[in-house]
Write a structure and sequence with these properties.
The chain is of the alpha+beta class. It is built from eight helices and 17 strands. Helix 1 (3-12) packs across helix 6 (93-105) and helix 4 runs parallel beside helix 5 (73-80). InterPro entries: Arg_MeTrfase, PRMT_dom, SAM-dependent_MTases_sf.
Length: 317
């Protein structure tokens, strides 16, 4: 265990005192552990779907690698589903220690091992006895790839998963619609404030996608929904790239962005989706700003160049 994880273990068991060490630890934890973990763990639809998918897919006695421990939920679900051995990795040392304690509290430490490092640093023969039978990698953000799904799966598929291993999810699709919204545009763009021109701040605007819960902001869709990107996580190269997407416009006006959401294929007919209609999902939708607004006219087809890196989506005419 690392020195930081060792300190975390001690402080997690220490009652909080104002100004004391555990109080300082709590402040650090609040800064380093994203708040979305709480919304995620309270997302019943997500949790039930993943637990059910693991129960259907994991063969009795199988070895499992879970990328992104979080609270340890999926690792424990894999153990409960009949896995003989579960390795779960978490790059955040505070979360890794929490996961260890949660797993231990459930009496599953003999099956589940939590490793405090990213999956890309795991090695067979050191962290894993052999390539695993099942890979679980539910590390997705509003736009699918922002948490590093592509590089993590690329590496694990080559170095950590057996050639005939099972992958969850096995495929992912990204759907999108052209959208206009002055309200959301102002979340990432400025002109004047208090009578001063502050437009130079736009040099710091987000170029890639960011999360927006569409139903909380006035907006208008400018096209029908379409599948704009698709990944076969078992076979595709999963490298950065770009493609031209054709979207039939449904309204006249100016498109500001491509609103996107994902669909994960977890096998057995089970999918996870954060579409705008699924307002109960803790995942928001992805807002992919267009480099420049695109004038559109109903009935015409609009071509958008969608680019993806290992961690971000971007779009232009």
């Amino acid at each position: 265990m690392s020195e930081m994880a060792d300190q975390a273990s001690s402080l997690l068991r220490t009652p909080s005192e104002p100004g004391g060490a555990s109080g300082v630890f709590s402040d650090i934890a609040r800064r380093s552990v994203p708040r979305w973990h709480f919304a995620m763990l309270n997302d019943t639809e997500r949790n039930d779907a993943l637990v059910t998918a693991l129960g259907k897919a994991i063969p009795p006695g199988a070895s499992v690698l879970d990328i992104g421990s979080g609270s340890g939920l999926l690792a424990m679900a894999a153990a409960r589903a009949g896995a003989g051995r579960v390795i779960t990795c978490e790059m955040n040392p505070l979360l890794a220690e929490v996961a260890r304690q949660v797993v231990d509290a459930h009496g599953l430490s003999d099956v589940v091992t939590v490793i405090g490092k990213p999956s890309t640093r795991l090695e067979v023969g050191q962290d894993l006895e052999a390539p695993v039978d099942v890979l679980v990698s539910e590390i997705v953000d509003c736009g699918l790839i922002g948490e590093g799904l592509l590089p993590a799966v690329r590496h694990a598929r080559e170095h950590l998963l057996s050639p005939d291993g099972i992958m969850l999810p096995s495929a992912a699709r990204l759907h999108g619609r052209l959208v206009t919204s002055d309200a959301v545009l102002k979340l990432n763009q400025v002109t004047t404030a208090g009578g001063f021109d502050v437009s130079l701040m736009n040099a710091l605007a987000t170029r890639g996608h960011f999360p927006v819960r569409l139903d909380t902001w006035p907006h208008r869709f400018m096209s029908d929904a379409a599948c704009v990107l698709e990944f076969d996580l078992v076979r595709d190269a999963l490298t950065p790239g770009e493609r031209v997407v054709s979207l039939p416009a449904t309204a006249d006006g100016e498109a500001h962005a491509l609103a996107v959401w994902f669909e994960l294929d977890m096998g057995g007919g089970i999918t996870l989706c954060n579409s705008p209609e699924n307002t109960s999902s803790h995942w928001m939708q992805g807002w992919v700003p267009l480099e420049k607004p695109i004038p559109v006219k109903a009935g015409e087809t609009v071509s958008v160049r969608l680019r993806w890196s290992d961690f971000a989506l971007s779009a232009s005419a």
